[in-house]
Amino acid sequence: MTEGPYHHGNLRTALLERAETVLTESGVEGLSLRALARDLGVSHAAPSRHFRDRQALLDALAVSGFTRLNTRLSAAAEAPGPVPDRLAALGRAYVDFAVTHAPLLNLMFSAKRADDSSAELRELGHHSLDTTAGLIAQAQAEGFVREGDPARLAQVAFSTVHGLATLALGSLLDDTPLPEATDLALDVLLTGLARPGR
């Protein structure tokens, strides 16, 4: 076989990295194990050592995406500083990831909702909501956030930042720059979450 762009190292990682690039450029329809093998200069059979089929590759991409998203959100939630600032940082981290990795995020949510999704994928998919709910519960304990089920409040928070990212991706924010829209959305969200009298 002629020498291609892939020479040695972790083929699984190389396949996932190339697959994410193809996903971004061509969508899910553009992904195939055979094409990835060709792109990396390995035999057509080589990817099957890591992914039994195309669906296994897509699931692995979704797992990788959720892992990266969860790492970003956890870092924002666990950073030093007041809880409201950390809630805002968490919201900004989500918007940034959603806008920067839109095709991957769509794949992540599709894979999580699939009837045959793995327990790992479902758990990773819920982790970001759990992180947000945990931070909201802490904010409630410190008197910053109104009473209510932290998981329900976290769902509302996510709907706000996810909706904003969706509008941005659809070029529906008109002339409002995304950072400005994000700051305003988070200000409105945190004001709504605030314990009355604060």
UniProtKB/TrEMBL annotation:
Signal peptide: none annotated. Keywords: DNA-binding, Transcription, Transcription regulation. Residues 32-51 bind DNA. Pfam families: TetR_C_33, TetR_N. Residues 9-69 form the HTH tetR-type domain. The keyword Transcription applies. This is TetR/AcrR family transcriptional regulator.
